[in-house]
Design brief:
Blueprint lengths: L68 H7 L21
């Protein structure tokens, strides 16, 4: 869960670019090289697991943020900035 301010910062879904001039999947204008293997090329390499880790449980976070989804929901804070979003005082939550 993220706050309204951090919704703009969320990364985009991994989908191919639309076919248009200047897209990364075109061969003109410095785009993709012919017969280039995108998995082996160093530029634009995507990693499903980010380099940031959750402050509480040290699990890798897939978005740029401070908390993983589980810890953010259990504490009621924004996963990216740590701002209090939800009051979880009356919630019945387990430690699992």
């Amino acid at each position: 869960m993220v706050c309204e301010k951090c919704e703009k910062k969320l990364s985009k879904v991994i989908v191919p670019d639309k076919w248009k001039e200047g897209a990364s999947n075109t061969t003109e204008g410095g785009g993709r090289k012919i017969n280039e293997n995108k998995l082996l090329s160093k530029k634009n390499r995507w990693s499903p697991l980010g380099t940031t880790k959750c402050i509480i449980c040290k699990q890798q976070v897939h978005q740029n943020g401070k908390y993983c989804h589980t810890c953010a929901y259990s504490k009621g804070v924004c996963a990216m900035c740590g701002k209090q979003v939800l009051d979880t005082k009356n919630y019945k939550q387990s430690n699992v």
